[in-house]
Amino acid sequence: MSGEFQQAALTLAGAQHFPAWLTDARAQGAAVWQGLAWPTRKTEAWRYTSLLPLENAQWQPAQARQLTDLSELVELDAYRLVFVNGHFAAHLSTECPAALVRFSEADSAQQALIREHLNQVADQQQHLFAALNSSWLQEGVLLHLGANQRLDKPVYLVQVSDQADAQAMNARVLVVLESGAEAELLEHFYSTEADDKGWMNATTECVVGANASLRHYRINLESEQSLHTGGVHVRLAQDARFNGFTLANGSRLKRLDYHIKHLGSGSDLQLNGIYLPRNQQRVDYHTQVEHCVPHCTTTEVFRGVIADSARAVFNGRIHIHPDAQKTLAEMSNRNLLTSDQAQVNTKPELEIYADDVRCAHGATVSQLNDEALFYLTSRGISEAEARVMLSFGFVNELVEGVALEPLQQWLRPRIAQMFGQNDQLTRHIIHD
Amino acid sequence: MSEQVEQLIKKEYAAGFHTDIESETLPPGLNEDVVRFISAKKNEPEWMLEWRLKAYRAWLTMKEPDWAHVHYPEIDFQAVSYYSAPKSLADRPKSLDEVDPDLIETYNKLGIPLHEQEMLAGVAVDAVFDSVSVVTTFRGKLEEAGVIFCPISEAVHKYPELVKKYIGTVVPQRDNYYAALNSAVFSDGSFVYIPKGVRCPMELSTYFRINQMNTGQFERTLIIADEGSHVSYLEGCTAPQRDENQLHAAVVELIALDNAEIKYSTVQNWYPGDENGKGGIYNFVTKRGICHTRAKISWTQVETGSAVTWKYPSCILKGDHSIGEFYSVALTNNCQQADTGTKMIHLGKHTKSTIISKGISAGRSQNAYRGLVRMGPSAAGARNYTQCDSLLIGDRCGAHTFPYIESAHPSAIVEHEATTSKVSDDQMFLCQQRGLDAEKAVSMIVNGFCREVFKQLPMEFAVEAGKLLEVSLEGSVG
Amino acid sequence: MLKINELCASVEDKAIIRQLSLDVGPGEIHAIMGPNGAGKSTLGNVLAGRPGYEPTAGSVTFKGLDLLDMDPEIRAREGLFLAFQYPVEIPGVSNMELLKAAVDARRSHAGLSELSAIDFMKMAREACKAVDLDQSFLKRGVNEGFSGGEKKRNEIMQMMLMEPSLCILDETDSGLDIDALQVVARGVNAMRAADRSFIVVTHYQRLLDYIVPDYVHVLANGRIVKSGDKSLALELEAKGYSWLEDEVA
């Protein structure tokens, strides 16, 4: 680790305001990251993504700030918790049920639950930024549902940032669903200012109990100057379901890790993702799915449209452990390059140690189909609009798969606008 | 750790070692004097020695790669002997009766004729049988066509300009750890030159280079197909090959100039060690070809041997409209480990590559496909298609796929598909209901699985390769 | 030819065949009919020795030999042929290759020499012709990409080449249109011989218009509940199975 960065990391870890009962978790995280080698481009997991933007800045803890404009929020009837620059904004948040609580407000039973599960889902040895996250823990959110419980509304967690300087933020979420419980959770990250230079390090851990079901959405649409590291870590018990959707644009550094473990037979994972970097942006998705027991299923679909001089990385790994017979796992990654300078590096891996399995993966890299383009233009559509329509069409299947209807409606125009800023080009998509 | 290495390690390192030009084998260890000794033994010109020394010095600064999905005890490169002259007639077995009966049994299963068995097992026989005359006719025909096919040690003397011009241009000395080692100490290998516009009149096979047996350890091959020429080269044979040297690090360089075509087929069946993983060859190979405009290089490999295989026959598609192909069957059984695949580096416009990889894992083996498809910034209109399938037999083996796809050109199209499955119970039962026993059924299904690759092999080779899989899979079904 | 004596068999620990007895003499054709779930397909699979279909009691002798004691491939070599209800696809393995290996195995088991490639090819071509399959099917992967009807005809073609002494047709007629059905029936009728017997398992009476059975048995709840001649099939066609089930109950 570069000396400067290490100093900054230590300073951040030295924050004074944190609940005393988190001391152990913080110490544990600190011990792990201080023992880890700092990744370089020779580290396989960081082969295509440089951490220089992180190393070259003087990181300071982020300061709270007033914010009144909520126009960018998803219009959603939900239990909402809003954090601005990492600090809780009570006036922007709604009343929440007891099942949804900030760490700083947790009662003793909830504290015990957090201590029991925190750091247990994310493998910190493997995920440096999860370890850093633990060592900086000051606040977090717990969503805990008891057996067969279900909330009447989705949960909506918002992380807004707008920082002119190199300020670091930490976000932590812990979801614990006991057997038969069901929840829907949307995590939304965005910048209010185009020149937001903040760094958000966000770790989410989900414990999905037997026959429980979690729908999880993570929307990362921050400014081009911002940095984001983090991930979603999930443990699935018997017959548990995790249905995940993730969308990201790119930025100077954006690295998202999904790591899901099938630990009980009959569990099911559906993970869909879209990445849409443009200009000089970078985006890097690393997903790992581990099948540890028999009879589990995984379907993973990621699509990317890479424009301008942007670069995308997709590294998807499915690991079938020796006892995981009767596994069905499929992974597909398709990429569209829409400019001469755009680049993508994709690596769909299978690591299989059981024989009675059916696994398949596919990856493609291509450009817009000339014939399709011609077909549309021959019907009188301008080429520019046709390009936008086809780009949108490339990811549309996944957008339509978003079960949370208001989110899907909110996403459509925003995705369309990433392909064509001009309303004339996107009107047919938005009014679909 | 294998006994051979262990024994070598037990030997004391000869400090202050002096080169003795008369000696026939070198004690273990590697230093500049060893490199000089090897060069001197072959009477090499100064430039060749310098080239080797440069490689040696590079090697000293390099690290053994550790990214492959294979595990083996650390190799002590100072415990390896880097030169031994071919065995004299007196040291070799007098007849097949003196050869390991297991080996003979395998030869018989593969249907290898007796006199070829003798040759393969290194029996000291008077070399007057048929194959010698075959070799003579063979050489005559090649000379007529102007094709050069000789040991590389001979080419260094006879065709120094060609060797100097091309050696190390596709696999530079410091390309990787093993390539550097090979460059410093390579023993011998083939040299092929096909003149402009010539279609080589026959398949070139290492098999015919019988005088060059025993050069396996650090083999170096250089094939140059001049403009518009065509050659098909066969390496190895299906017969199991034993070698006292556990460490093998070969380098193969192919140069296909404009409009030329090189087809390179390999059957690799080095001793894989016993069923407990004891012994067996470590095979670390660097194979790469460069294609100029409209040239084509096609690699076909059938890998069934070695304890550890580390091998990625690759194509640099430099010229516009050039084509690279890779067809591979890699079978691992017992405790074998293979990490093999290819790299297709697309630099030229409208370049095309096809990768068909079939991995079969049985026993407790680990079989990994590792491939890179890179579409460079100038590879307009380039295309790649990759199909990579794994078949599992038994529940203690592993099959892994690590494809790297790097695309920096929007008009390049890359398609990658991979599947993993097992020999299904239904397929087995259908075969059994038609009267086939389990082993025959598996071998038939496996051969079917590999068909796409086998049909790339020359006819005779393809039949042998099928038999080879059958023999290699013995004992893999209950 | 085949004597089944109070056979019981189960699949995944569930008893499917319960004390079933049946005697099939040389040259006879027995039709086995019955409602879905009666155990019809299970019977064929148990006789052929499919893994997972476990005989739990009773005995079966085939040409005087203990059938249940034999591995599936030995049963096949002894002359028991099962035409599958759902023939599996084996990509990459050609029909020709499978057949040659199968015929060779059967012949060498009988102490006969292997057929030459030319003789075999001739036989295979004739068999194809007999079931209206184009010869290109010989070169294609076993059942790979075949339509339902082609798969069934392919089974009959294999049956012809293997010259079995006992043929079990497991719902070979299901899913066939009338033309294909006639082709299948023609193949079977051409093979009728004094030393060859057939067990035709079917759900529909229609097949029996083309393959005339000597005996018709009704299977329900894993045992034969009624036996008769061809007229029984017509009765079933008219009245369905429920009256029989009631009768048994």
From TrEMBL, chain A:
GO terms for biological process: iron-sulfur cluster assembly. InterPro entries: Fe-S_cluster_assembly_SufBD, SUF_FeS_clus_asmbl_SufBD_core, SUF_FeS_clus_asmbl_SufBD_sf, SUF_FeS_clus_asmbl_SufD, SufBD_N. It comes from the Bacteria. Pfam families: SUFBD_core, SufBD_N. Residues 165-394 form the SUF system FeS cluster assembly SufBD core domain. Residues 16-155 form the SUF system FeS cluster assembly SufBD N-terminal domain. Belongs to the iron-sulfur cluster assembly SufBD family. NCBIfam families: sufD. This is Iron-sulfur cluster assembly protein SufD. It comes from Nitrincola lacisaponensis. The lineage of its organism: Bacteria, Pseudomonadati, Pseudomonadota, Gammaproteobacteria, Oceanospirillales.
Automatic annotation (TrEMBL), chain B:
Residues 208-449 form the SUF system FeS cluster assembly SufBD core domain. Signal peptide: none annotated. Transmembrane segments: none annotated. Residues 144-200 form the SUF system FeS cluster assembly SufBD N-terminal domain. It comes from the Bacteria. Belongs to the iron-sulfur cluster assembly SufBD family. This is Iron-sulfur cluster assembly protein SufB. It comes from Nitrincola lacisaponensis.
Automatic annotation (TrEMBL), chain C:
Keywords: ATP-binding, Nucleotide-binding. The keyword Nucleotide-binding applies. InterPro entries: AAA+_ATPase, ABC_transporter-like_ATP-bd, FeS-cluster_ATPase_SufC, P-loop_NTPase. GO terms for molecular function: ATP binding; ATP hydrolysis activity. Residues 2-246 form the ABC transporter domain. SMART domains: AAA. It comes from the Bacteria. PANTHER family: ABC TRANSPORTER I FAMILY MEMBER 6, CHLOROPLASTIC. Belongs to the ABC transporter superfamily. Ycf16 family. This is Iron-sulfur cluster assembly ATPase protein SufC. It comes from Nitrincola lacisaponensis. The lineage of its organism: Bacteria, Pseudomonadati, Pseudomonadota, Gammaproteobacteria, Oceanospirillales.
